[in-house]
Structures are given as C-alpha cells and as structure tokens.
UniProtKB/TrEMBL annotation:
A Pfam family: TctC
Gene source species: Roseomonas fluvialis
Similarity remark: Belongs to the UPF0065 (bug) family.
Keyword Protease: no
Keyword Heme: no
InterPro entries, alphabetized: BUG (IPR005064), Bug_dom1 (IPR042100)
Signal peptide: 1-19
Matching CDD domains: PBP2_Bug_TTT
UniProt-recorded name of the protein: Tripartite tricarboxylate transporter substrate binding protein
Keyword entries, A-Z: Signal
Sections of the chain in a coiled coil: none
C-alpha cells in the first residue's frame, strides 16, 4: 500500500505542475519589441506545455521592476520574465542601485531572439551612407545628434560605441521610447536614431545606414553591417529570453526550454523572426546562462569607458 501511494504521488506531481497557470512577465509597456516577443511565444508555449500562460506587463525602470518581481519570487512560483539586454545586461552596468543580481537571482532558461539594432536617418535627408554620416560628424564635432529610447539604454550605449570606434563626437539625445526619437529624425530635429530594427526597420520614412548583426539580415539585405564597414565592435544584438526565479527545478526549466525551442522552429514563427531581423535558435538553459554571463562584463566595460549614466 505504501509503495502504491508513493507511485501515485509521483505520477500526480507532474500533472499538478502542468495544471498551474504560468505568469509571463513582460517588463516593458505594450507595443514594443519585448511585448511583441512575449505575445508571439505565449500561445505556442501554452500549446506545448499544456498550461495556461498569462502575459503580464510590468514596465518601469528599464525593465527592472518586472524583473525584480521574478527575482523575489519562490523557485516554484510559476512565474517567468522576458529577460533582456536592458534588464540583465546594460542595466546592471548603468544602475548603481540594481535591486537584483542578473545571474544569482535567476534561472536562465532559453533565448527567444537576438535582434540587431540599426542606425536610421531620414529617408529624404542628406545621408545615404554611414561614411557620409560620420564625415558630417567630423566636420562639425557635436553637431550630429543621435536619438535613443533613453539615457542608459542600449541605443545610448551603441551611440557611444560608434562615436568611440569612429573617433567622432556625436551628441546623444535621450527620449522616452523609440517612437518619439523616430519622429524627431523624420522631422529634422535630430540627424539619426539607434534602436532595435523591430522598432525602426519597417518605417519607410527612415533609411537604415548600418545594422549591428554579424551578417546582413534577410529582411534588409541591402543594409550593410557595421562590421563590414570597418566597425567590428558594433556587432551587438539586443537579446531576449526566458528566465525564472533562482533555484528552479532543472527538469521544469528543461521542459520549458524544450517547448520554447519547438515553438521557435515552426514555419510561422521562423517567418516572424525573419521579419524582426533574426533567426530561430536552439539554445539550452546552459547556453543562455553563458550568454548572459558573457554580456555583463562586456557592457560594464563599455559603460565605464563612456561614462554612461541612467540619470
């Protein structure tokens, strides 16, 4: 009888775990790249896990508020977050009062996408190439203004990376999001914007001069990479993945990773990722953990050298 009871308990545990609703926290407002990726994977994950997956937007502080919810949750709380380059990379370097440790306080499960950034200018403006853009910056130091989605963001960091690599002086102009930054480029208030291609790449009033991926994106085959134009340090994608609280059961993390990898491999999802300038991946939890660990010191060095601050 005891052995039978133990067997029944063992069989029931996975079923109970699968019946639980999973909360997927998107630590940014609706409408942006992070929110888009969350809502793309939500139905696919739901189908493969056999669980209800509820997307919950918890924006604020560059992704830290939503991420901190997961960092402070019990390991078995059934809550995940879309960890990303802002909340788990650049943010750790620019925010001195980080409420969590991007490695110690999370179980990193898998990569959803690595989306490149691009330098965009007005489609009707005077710059047709990156060389022309940089020549203008050399001719009038500080006169070329580059917008980003805010101080201490990846766009800010990449603007400083470009200025240092090209040995020019660019004036960074922070905005509250990519949309107003794009508006000012089109209106002529600034000369350029650096942001994720998902946010700026489908605007026909912008011209993309260069992209930060290792290779040209299938979605924008005519746009050269910074690397091929002589700036290899500008190979820097915006990565987004799934992470849970620290101490998650390894089998549970592996099950979620398997569902994620299968979801990303579907033809429909592969096409959506192509539209965002990226491709499906098969990262394991160990792979994604290693990616986050490698990115932290890289951005810490960049932020320190350029004296980038979030305020």
């Amino acid at each position: 009888m005891l052995r039978r009871s133990l067997l029944l308990a063992t069989l029931a545990t996975p079923a109970l775990a699968q019946a639980r609703t999973l909360r997927l926290i998107v630590p940014f407002p609706p409408g942006g790249t992070v929110d888009l990726l969350g809502r793309l994977v939500q139905p696919e994950m739901e189908q493969r896990l056999g669980q209800t997956v509820v997307v919950e937007n918890r924006p604020g502080a560059g992704g830290m508020i939503g991420s901190d919810v997961v960092a402070k949750s019990p390991a078995d709380a059934g809550v995940l977050v879309i960890s990303n380059i802002a909340s788990h990379g650049v943010g750790a370097a620019v925010n001195r009062a980080m409420p969590y440790d991007p490695m110690r306080d999370f179980t990193h499960i898998g990569l959803i996408a690595a989306v490149p950034s691009a330098l965009g200018v007005s489609a009707t403006g005077r710059f047709a190439t990156l060389a022309q853009f940089l020549d203008a910056a050399r001719a009038q130091p500080g006169a070329v203004r580059v917008g980003s989605s805010g101080n201490g963001t990846t766009g800010h960091a990449k603007t400083e990376m470009l200025a240092r690599a090209a040995r020019v002086e660019l004036t960074h102009v922070p905005y509250r999001g990519a949309a107003p930054a794009v508006t000012d480029v089109i209106g002529g208030q600034t000369e350029g914007v650096i942001a994720a291609v998902a946010d700026i790449g489908r605007n026909d009033r912008l011209r993309l001069l260069a992209i930060t991926s290792a290779d040209r994106a299938a979605r924008w085959p005519d746009v050269p990479t910074f690397k091929e134009l002589g700036f290899p340090t500008l190979e820097a994608n915006n990565w987004f993945g799934l992470s849970g609280p620290a101490g998650m059961d390894a089998a549970a993390a592996a099950r979620i990773n398997a569902a994620l990898v299968a979801a990303l491999a579907t033809p429909a999802m592969a096409q959506r990722l192509t539209d965002l300038g990226t491709t499906p991946n098969r990262m394991t939890p160990a792979d994604y953990t290693a990616l986050v660990a490698a990115e932290l010191p890289r951005w810490a060095q960049i932020v320190q050298e350029a004296n980038i601050r979030a305020d």
